[in-house]
Every structure is written in structure tokens, then in C-alpha cells.
């Protein structure tokens, strides 16, 4: 068993002002994505300058934050937020949904594309390779918050999380997700998108890989207490939401290669 590193969730405390690591992880993820996107933006559109890219990053960031929070409220704990709506604004306590954030990003990207004369899926193909940076940073934030831990286990790297009332050695599922959704997904998409691809193919590959990675990790991750398992004694909300992602992603890849086999993607 490995000891859980006792990291104060509050990174900086200045009187009543507290800056949490969880929030900083979002800034790191957005900043890292912006930095790498700036290296490829001229391949996507040579006319774009830093201001145009910054506008895009702002819109995507708003989609992540607003969509992620509202998605968690709707998908995972609607009753609690109805009883106390102020909980919606307490983002430092965690409670973000990837699938809600994805919907938010899709909506904001669609609006941005229409305003700037771009095709939606071409813009999504440009964005997709940078998303895992934010996903990986977010999982580190979950680990520091000692939340979203896994099932009890006797693997050598199991940990006892301070937030676990049972104090059992558990899978550090946040780190599994960091490795898969953050590191592995970034490497796959970065390499794949470095060469010309059909429109929708990069976005489709993102959906397929994320859906598969998340589905797998859900087997060792404890589901949200207010939901539990939805069916069969193992099916979680995360898995339910990932199935359509994988199917839609596969459809996008097939459509792309059949209809635009030589068209380059950013």
C-alpha cells in the first residue's frame, strides 16, 4: 500500500481569500492547451492571430466550466441542487461533469464557428488534441481533493484517502484517469492529428478513446453515492454516458473516411 500524500486542497490562503488547487488545475489545463494550440494555429488558419486564438480559448473555457458544472447538477445530483441552489457556485468543492463540459464546448464552438465563418467539425478537429491537457489536470485536482476514489483493493499501489469514512485501501482511480484520459489520450490525438486526416476523424477518435478509457476505469471507481450502480450491479452513470460517445465517435470516423478521404484536418 502506498501512503496518500497529504496535500492541502488550498494552494494559497490570503485572509478570507482561498485559492484551491482544483481551480488552479483548470487554469493549468486551459493555459497548456492555449500554448500548444498557438503552435498549430497557423496550420489551421494562417490568417488567425493570437487575439483570435485567445477568443476561441475563452469560448471553450466557458463551455467547459459552465457546461461541466451544469452537467454535474443535471446528471449526478439534481435533487441536492434543487434543495440548495447556492451549491452550484461552490465549485471549489468539486462536482464537474466531463459530459456536461463536452456539451458546453460543443455549443460554444458551434457559436464561435458561426461567428467566424468556420465549419463546426473542422474547428472541433483543431480543438480535440488539446482537450486531454485539461482532462489530465482536472484528474490531478480530483486526487488532491481526495475525491472520486476507487474501490477497495489490495494492489501494492492502493491508498487510504482521508475523505473515506471507511478508511480502506483503495484504487487511486483519479490517477488511472490522469494516465488514460490525460497522458495516453493526448499522445494518441497529438500523433494522429499531426498528419492530414478527414474532417471529423480527429474529433471522432477523441470520442471513441475517451469513452473506452472512461468506461474501463469506471469498473474500479466508486460511483457517486447519490446514484450508486444503475443496473447489473456494476453499470454506472459514467458508463451510460460513454456508450453513445463511442458509437457516435465511430460513426464520425467512418463518415469522414468515406466522404472526405483526402481532406486535411488541423
Automatic annotation (TrEMBL):
InterPro entries: Lgt. It comes from the Bacteria. It is found in: Cell membrane. A 1,2-diacyl-sn-glycero-3-phospho-(1'-sn-glycerol) binds at residue 139. The keyword Cell membrane applies. It holds the Pfam family LGT. Its main location: membrane. Keywords: Cell membrane, Lipoprotein, Membrane, Transferase, Transmembrane, Transmembrane helix. Its EC number is 2.5.1.145. GO terms for molecular function: phosphatidylglycerol-prolipoprotein diacylglyceryl transferase activity. Pathway: Protein modification; lipoprotein biosynthesis (diacylglyceryl transfer). It is a multi-pass membrane protein. The chain crosses the membrane at residues 19-36, 56-76, 96-113, 175-193, 199-217, 229-257. One of its GO terms (biological process) is lipoprotein biosynthetic process. One of its GO terms (cellular component) is plasma membrane. Belongs to the Lgt family. Catalyzes the transfer of the diacylglyceryl group from phosphatidylglycerol to the sulfhydryl group of the N-terminal cysteine of a prolipoprotein, the first step in the formation of mature lipoproteins. This is Phosphatidylglycerol--prolipoprotein diacylglyceryl transferase. It comes from Stutzerimonas zhaodongensis. The gene is lgt.
Amino acid at each position: 500500500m502506498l501512503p496518500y500524500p497529504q496535500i492541502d486542497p488550498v494552494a494559497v490562503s490570503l485572509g478570507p481569500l482561498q485559492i484551491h488547487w482544483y481551480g488552479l488545475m483548470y487554469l493549468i489545463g486551459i493555459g497548456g492547451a492555449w500554448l500548444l494550440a498557438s503552435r498549430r494555429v497557423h496550420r489551421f488558419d494562417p490568417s488567425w492571430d493570437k487575439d483570435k486564438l485567445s477568443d476561441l480559448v475563452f469560448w471553450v473555457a466557458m463551455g467547459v466550466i459552465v457546461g461541466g458544472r451544469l452537467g454535474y447538477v443535471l446528471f449526478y445530483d439534481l435533487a441536492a441542487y434543487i434543495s440548495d441552489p447556492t451549491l452550484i457556485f461552490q465549485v471549489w468543492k468539486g462536482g464537474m461533469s466531463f459530459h456536461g463540459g463536452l456539451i458546453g464546448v460543443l455549443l460554444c464552438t458551434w457559436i464561435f464557428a458561426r461567428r467566424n465563418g468556420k465549419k463546426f467539425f473542422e474547428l472541433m478537429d483543431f480543438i480535440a488534441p488539446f482537450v486531454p491537457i485539461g482532462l489530465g489536470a482536472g484528474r490531478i485536482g480530483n486526487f488532491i481533493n481526495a475525491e472520486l476514489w476507487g474501490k477497495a483493493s489490495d494492489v501494492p499501489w492502493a491508498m487510504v484517502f482521508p475523505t473515506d469514512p471507511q478508511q480502506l485501501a483503495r484504487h487511486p482511480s483519479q490517477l488511472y484517469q490522469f494516465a488514460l484520459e490525460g497522458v495516453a489520450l493526448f499522445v494518441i490525438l497529438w500523433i494522429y492529428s499531426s498528419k492530414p486526416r478527414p474532417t471529423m476523424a480527429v474529433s471522432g477518435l477523441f470520442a471513441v478513446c475517451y469513452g473506452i478509457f472512461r468506461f474501463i476505469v469506471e469498473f474500479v471507481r466508486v460511483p457517486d453515492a447519490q446514484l450508486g450502480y444503475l443496473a447489473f450491479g456494476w453499470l454506472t452513470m459514467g458508463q451510460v454516458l460513454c456508450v453513445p460517445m463511442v458509437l457516435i465517435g465511430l460513426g464520425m470516423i467512418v463518415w469522414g473516411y468515406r466522404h472526405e478521404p483526402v481532406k486535411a484536418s488541423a
